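Thread: "does anyone have the structure for this chain?"

Original post by V.I.:
We have the sequence but no experimental structure in hand. Need at least a predicted one for the grant figures.
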Amino acid sequence: MAGDLEPARRGWRLMLGALRPHRRKVVLGVLAGLVWTAAKVSVPRLAGVAIDRGVIHGHHGALVMWPLIIVAVGTVQGVCTGTRRFLAISLAAGVETDLRQRLFAHLQRLHFGFHDRSQTGQMMARANSDLQQIQFFLVFIPLAIANTLTVVSIAVILLLMNAPLALLALGALPLVNMTAKRFSSRIHPTVLALQQELGELASVVEETISGVRVVKGFGAEPLQARRLRKEADDVQNVSLLAARIRSAYIPMLDLLPTIGLIMVVWFGGHQVLAGHLTIGGLTAFYAYVLMLIWPLRMTGMLIAQAQRSKAAAERVDEILQTEPEIVDRPGAVGLPPGGGGEVRFENVTFGYYGLAHPVLDGLDLVLRAGEAVAVVGPTASGKTTIARLIPRFYDVDAGRVVVDGVDVRDARLHDLRRAVGLVFEDTFLFSDTVRANIAFADPAAPEAAVVRAARAAGAHEFISALPGGYDTMIGEHGYSLSGGQRQRIAIARAILADPRVLILDDATSSVDPTKEHEIRSALAEVMRGRTTIVIAHRPATIALADRVVLLDEGRVVAEGTHEGLLATSARYREVLARAEEDEADEMAAVSR
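Reply from O.Q.:
Generated one for you, tokens below.
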């Protein structure tokens, strides 16, 4: 099984698997490398023959013919070099693109719990710098194959030309192999730690930029600068450790091949003087040994890049091997057509990962089709959790959530989530036009439908006043708009989706209380005949609901009308009073 493989093997498996769809380019690259190698290793031999026949024996015709042959061979070598390089870059770019799309798609499939526990910066680092490291290595694959073929071919040729001299020239190769293995084992954990530290650094940068308003609001720039300095120092320290390992081994990998040159000059020279070897033969032999030096020197760089790429592939594979916990069950069904949106919580118990106590504890709640229910409760009573369980962002620990008679765990996720419209307190808008944000669930929606949704959400007037109207580009997260404007666009987005169940999770919290009436009538129109959950603390918003449910410690402790609960429930009055105090404190803080 994939999960049983060692991390290093998973890294290699990921890269090899990514190469399979591009095997045609791999094969063509290898063929180009073979021809390139054959052309390259033939040049010294041709030069040796030209020297012996043209220079030593005085054949003038040989001095013309053999150089022309060498030019022809060099031309073939050049063409193969360009072909191999193009195929290598094309292959690496294709694999990087495939992996990036695969990783992005998998990140979207992963459950909310995974994203709750993951750092965005780490995910960004794996989707960018880690994939780039894999690409860098894949570019080298045709070169590494060509280098290996070159070394093997030259070794065979040298042995055939002069076995004793070849053994002396190649005597350092076992030492090169031992040094390379030692280097590989030392550098791998270091580059893995470096990729991790780069992810931590990216997390600090991402959090600081995303939360720049909070950072500036609290004057915390020096604090974030210290965090960044610490992470940057960690990256520098690990980088220097990797550099020390490279500086200890790469010079040895550079030095060992030159020993072969010394042996060729010393022993080969004596063989020429003794008449056992021609000058052309010695020249060719010397040229072949020179050709060995660059591939062997490249060994160190290839090993270092291979280890860094393997470490990056391990980190990417760690994400890809994470199984989504919220998926369609075998035999999943669609919601019944024409359903009115009845929602039932039956003895539901649920707790978030890492919490000692459940947020919902034996919750029983029924929302009749077409009914609007306000859910009220103190902080951490489970109000938002209810909103998250209906579209199955999380699975319950016990009990069940039922929509129109279907357990949400038995429903197809796509159908379920298209049937539920959500407007959260923390409104998120995309860096796109106003129109695109409203039509997010249905990009092909006609203009009239977009405008109708905006009117229903009380957003049409301010959108029309924007410089580009519905074509106005919204800045990142929509921060170019006010909080109330963002929430009205989010409400319009949910309305356009035409859900069976509409969930408004403090959807008017960012709207100034003095202007809340502007969208209250619109909300009342949208909620009419549609099952709606209103999570709120403002009495005017709560009054939109047909029924009010008071939630405390994960259970329903009281329900009725707003006026009825005010008259009969001290806990209800206490919750509303505390919410009003908190809102007053927030407004006072803003005014200061």
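V.I.: this helps a lot. The chain has three domains: 2-320, 351-419+501-592, 430-498.
O.Q.: and The longest strand covers residues 343-350.
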